[in-house]
């Protein structure tokens, strides 16, 4: 099993002037510590479940570009891009740029978006849920087309592109990996089976996750897709350093039901130090899990 770091808290000692160094040092610690991925949120306002909407939140792709120049091996992405935040062609171009400048380390994490307050606050349209999922599927189709040899038009219900030119091409071969976030059984997991290389599931307990993995396998069968081609990832809501042995025991259970990667988030006011400690105590032992 692999460890991924998800950096979501920008309310740190030292305030705004400290954010660049805190973010950079945390990503470098994850890179040097053997983590597989370093992800940020894609929000304009901080989530109210973590702090308040007035707490600091950096724009995601600008931040990943900054980190591309400070890391060497780790995959960089957003967990996850909201489909409503950017036009699909621009999104594909943005991820391609990140991929080129990072030497082939970009991940497109994407989902149907949900945070209505930030849309209304900054004047961005927030369609109903059904339409957002329609836009998500079209966006997946557009990104895959732009990263293919087909630079012709795309005609969808919501997006129409006269040309899908993407130059330079991504360094990742054959294209940047796509991760879809969410656990919806009818649409989200079907989209994973049809279009994506990875999924990210919330992990309230192993029984729930096992059920979701089973649903995904069913969609893979319907799409004639080998489920082993898809990386199953989870994000957990507790600090592994509170009880490392318990964390590792939990991960053994998740590995048995098909989870490949666990995403954890720094706790406390010194995220780089936290990342260093969690990698030292877990990365080597996680590698033996599963």
UniProtKB/TrEMBL annotation:
Start and end residues of each Luciferase-like domain? 20-232
The family database entries (InterPro entries) matched by this protein are listed as: F420_OxRdatse_Rv1855c_pred (IPR019952), Luciferase-like_dom (IPR011251), Luciferase-like_sf (IPR036661), SsuD_RutA_monooxygenase (IPR050172)
Q: Per the UniProt entry, what are the Gene Ontology biological process annotations, in alphabetical order? A: alkanesulfonate catabolic process
A GO molecular-function annotation: alkanesulfonate monooxygenase activity
Pfam families registered for this protein in UniProt:
Bac_luciferase (PF00296)
Give the UniProt keywords, A-Z. Answer: Flavoprotein, FMN, Monooxygenase, Oxidoreductase
From the Swiss-Prot or TrEMBL record, give the protein name.
LLM class F420-dependent oxidoreductase
Q: In which organism is this protein found?
A: Rhodococcoides trifolii
């Amino acid at each position: 099993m692999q460890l991924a770091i998800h950096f979501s808290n920008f309310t740190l000692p030292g305030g705004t002037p400290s954010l660049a160094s805190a973010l950079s040092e945390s990503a470098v610690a994850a890179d040097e510590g053997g983590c597989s991925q370093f992800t940020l949120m894609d929000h304009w306002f901080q989530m109210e479940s973590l702090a308040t909407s007035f707490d600091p939140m950096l724009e995601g792709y600008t931040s990943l570009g900054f980190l591309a120049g400070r890391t060497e091996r780790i995959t960089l992405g957003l967990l996850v891009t909201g489909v409503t935040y950017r036009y699909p062609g621009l999104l594909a171009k943005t991820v391609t740029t990140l991929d080129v400048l990072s030497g082939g380390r970009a991940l497109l994490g994407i989902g149907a978006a949900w945070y209505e307050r930030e849309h209304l606050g900054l004047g961005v349209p927030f369609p109903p849920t059904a339409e957002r999922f329609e836009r998500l599927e079209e966006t997946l189709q557009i990104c895959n087309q732009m990263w293919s040899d087909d630079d012709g038009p795309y005609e969808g219900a919501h997006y129409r592109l006269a040309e899908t030119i993407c130059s330079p091409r991504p360094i990742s071969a054959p294209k940047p990996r796509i991760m879809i976030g969410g656990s919806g059984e009818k649409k989200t997991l079907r989209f994973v089976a049809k279009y994506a290389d990875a999924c990210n599931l919330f992990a309230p307990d192993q029984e729930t996750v096992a059920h979701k993995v089973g649903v995904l396998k069913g969609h893979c069968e319907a799409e004639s897709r080998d489920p082993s081609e898809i990386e199953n990832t989870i994000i957990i809501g507790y600090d592994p350093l509170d009880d490392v042995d318990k964390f590792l025991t939990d991960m053994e259970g998740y590995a048995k039901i098909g989870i490949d990667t666990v995403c954890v988030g720094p706790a406390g006011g010194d995220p780089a130090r936290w990342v260093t400690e969690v990698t030292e105590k877990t990365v080597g032992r996680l590698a033996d899990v599963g």
